[in-house]
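Help! Submission page says 'invalid entity' but I think these are all valid:
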Amino acid sequence: MKTPRTGGRRGRVSRRTGTIEKRFDKAWRRWVNPYTPVKQFSDDEIEAIHNAALRILRDIGVKVLCDEARALYTRAGMTAVDEIVRFDPETTIELVRLAPAEVTLHGRGDDREVVVGGANVGVCTTGGTPNFSDIKNGRAPGTLKSLDNFCRVSQSFDVIHMIGPFVEPQDIPTNIRHLEMMKSVVTLTEKVPFVYFRGTEAVADCHEMLRIAHGLGPEEFVNKPVCYSVANSNSPLMLDLLMCRGIIDSAQAGQLMILTPFTLSGAMAPVTLPGALAQQHAEAIAGIALSQIVRPGAPVCYGSFTSNVDMKSGAPAFGTPEYVKAAFASGQLARHLNLPMRSSGVTGSNAPDAQAAYEMEMSLWGALMGGANILLHGAGWLEGGLTASAEKFIMDIEMLQMFAELFKPVEVNEETLGIAAIADVGHGGHFFGTRHTLERFETAFYSPLLSDWSNFENYTERGSVDATMRAYSIFYDTANAHEPPPMDQDRLEELEDFVSRRTREGGANIER
Amino acid sequence: MKTPRTGGRRGRVSRRTGTIEKRFDKAWRRWVNPYTPVKQFSDDEIEAIHNAALRILRDIGVKVLCDEARALYTRAGMTAVDEIVRFDPETTIELVRLAPAEVTLHGRGDDREVVVGGANVGVCTTGGTPNFSDIKNGRAPGTLKSLDNFCRVSQSFDVIHMIGPFVEPQDIPTNIRHLEMMKSVVTLTEKVPFVYFRGTEAVADCHEMLRIAHGLGPEEFVNKPVCYSVANSNSPLMLDLLMCRGIIDSAQAGQLMILTPFTLSGAMAPVTLPGALAQQHAEAIAGIALSQIVRPGAPVCYGSFTSNVDMKSGAPAFGTPEYVKAAFASGQLARHLNLPMRSSGVTGSNAPDAQAAYEMEMSLWGALMGGANILLHGAGWLEGGLTASAEKFIMDIEMLQMFAELFKPVEVNEETLGIAAIADVGHGGHFFGTRHTLERFETAFYSPLLSDWSNFENYTERGSVDATMRAYSIFYDTANAHEPPPMDQDRLEELEDFVSRRTREGGANIER
């Protein structure tokens, strides 16, 4: 092993306190949700939705546009007629029960694990947006440069555990795009990357790059989840070739697959929430069962993206009350199957403004109080997923950091009850200078990244720079301060060689 | 009884749908929180905080700057030495247990009741801010005109049940300010007004105006709560003359008193959350006990305002993770006493921007999932309470409407599970035109007031008007469309005569 590159691990001067803060040295902030998940429905009602899903699977079935997947289903005891697979309820549930309740994902470095399941939460950045935007340069098709900047900023915040694919770098040809994207993610961050289901070749390329980056042998790789993928069913009740292939490929590779039906209530799912949830549940079960046929115990996650459309325009709406209800209920449905749950941070706003903030908060509270174990689109999502926004990214980091702080347990004991301190201060006094305060004040409260708590006079004197404008500066200051995390020189060379070779070979046969 | 004034009750054209919407005819939207309150602490930990509060009351006591109050306390079994009242735990808790667990407040009109307690929530507007602001005219000292505009807008939204005092109308002399403010509130709205504790005379004036507006006799008034007041203890552990007088006056008048300690952790309360809560609990119990000595069964509410200060500047911080934890815990402490709980919607932002939105959301979620029964400052609060903002008011109304929708129960049955509809649509179809959708789409989903769900192209074509700018327009459009709710002509004349007479008499002897 050669000497690691030195970049990244040196301390840096914090903008706030002037003290040295070794940002990249600290492990990320593990999230353990201390609250009992909120229930949208009674246990009986959840059972009714679950049973409705099984009836849908048995009587209506799922259209499966992949010969291999249909063959796998029938071999496991399902029936297939004219591409429609119908599911025996008992066999199906037995298959789903093979999936683990908890999965540990490994980032690079020993302190970079994410436990998915139970009360644990892994937070991902946004992904899949065609565009990128910031308030100074406006909105433009995604580029590799914009993706790299998101990687840099993501690496710098310890509330981010997993990297979403951010924007589509449309300046890179599709056949080699997955190679360039993965190279950016594994060299600029240490966090758990996302792998698109864009055909077996592209998935295999990404897995190989991750195997190299982690220094694993092929057998080790299959037993160590280091990335995650999302399979979206084509709601209502279809699984297309690409998604089936992805489910099969990731199960074989032992990597985490999140099955997320795209059940927009009123469009691709019933206008009623229980109906949309029954359909979501049916589709999730169908996809997860396929993964377990391929490899019993393959790591999976129950995905929910149920929201509603604006019935006036048909446009999808996000961060709505319906979205929150669906998130609460989806947590219950996932726990009913003893599976981890994925939800998302979302908004339909076109600007990184107050609407973006309150819709994002609604979805975050829905997801996290609903018991989500993976939060997708945790930072950067704007415009219903059509844009990754620099300012929204920083706003979201602030909101996520507040949740991380909220999740910190509070101890009740004689010292924290502070009766002696209260007696010392007496009636009408203040606690500023007391020993009880001085011993604790540095870490007692959340210290914000973006929020400005100065008074109105200072705020206006400094030019009335609002939260969105401040977020712009923080985004680029953070990107510019980034240094790549260390990677063994031989792994880095092997990665670069692999990308060069695959590029010379013409990249992958991409299906979208 | 003469003919009611006709203003207000005619239908108006909705901006959105073109249909006639009889806004002022509909009763307000009753809020019943369907979710089990979130617990911050175990039951044992809550018991420990409760016991710490009783120890504080017994051993340290409360400084009471009012002779009459001290006399009342001692007559009830407490001891008073040099203005310090020390509380016998058992007697104190017995007194608190006399307070009702639920109170019904009456607005004008039979459909204008607010139940406070259990799972019910009453939402108030903001109050007590010296300034008013909008984005076009900036920030200025409050005027009666600005207060009137807030009244008009408040009347128009059915998620607002109670009127906070909004801004201080600094263009009105203090001796008659309470008369003018109350006249605005009772003539421009039908909602439950707030009464300041600014001395016995001013309180009596306000009560008398409300007695007239409701057409009640003196004895009826005392048995029908039609307004609410807040007594803030002077933390730590003091009750000043004005607050003691207010507690006594409102208990005698049978009107709702919310006892809210102003326990900013790190400043007027310990830096540790359990300590701040123990002190809050002690102060709340002390004030509530006084009300029950005056009149057993007097309607009260347990108030929480525990937040933290920015330890760098000493400035109060709002909508923080600490605030949320305090709200969750305060709900538990109030329920421990079998009392309704008050919390608030807050932010420290200087602008109606993204920070204002996410801090407000944090406080709303903390309050409402914590089981708050009265939400103070539900709309309009900005700058840590130094300004009432037009735009923030509308942003808050949107957030409140989303919560009202979230609280609507969802039925699970064969119809809502929609299996037949799913079978009809089949694999890969859509639900837009189905009967199942058409029968429900008009009321299926929340329809926003402020949020813009149009696509980016339409949004930019219309000038990229962000949420704050849209909120400005909605505020003044709504104020301009307002017509006063009806009031019997003789009551109106009696009110006006009363205000004229009291003004001629020199108003009230105001203490602040």
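Support: the input was valid. A stray whitespace character was the problem, and the output above is from the cleaned input. Chain B touches chain A through 121 residues (CB under 8 Å).
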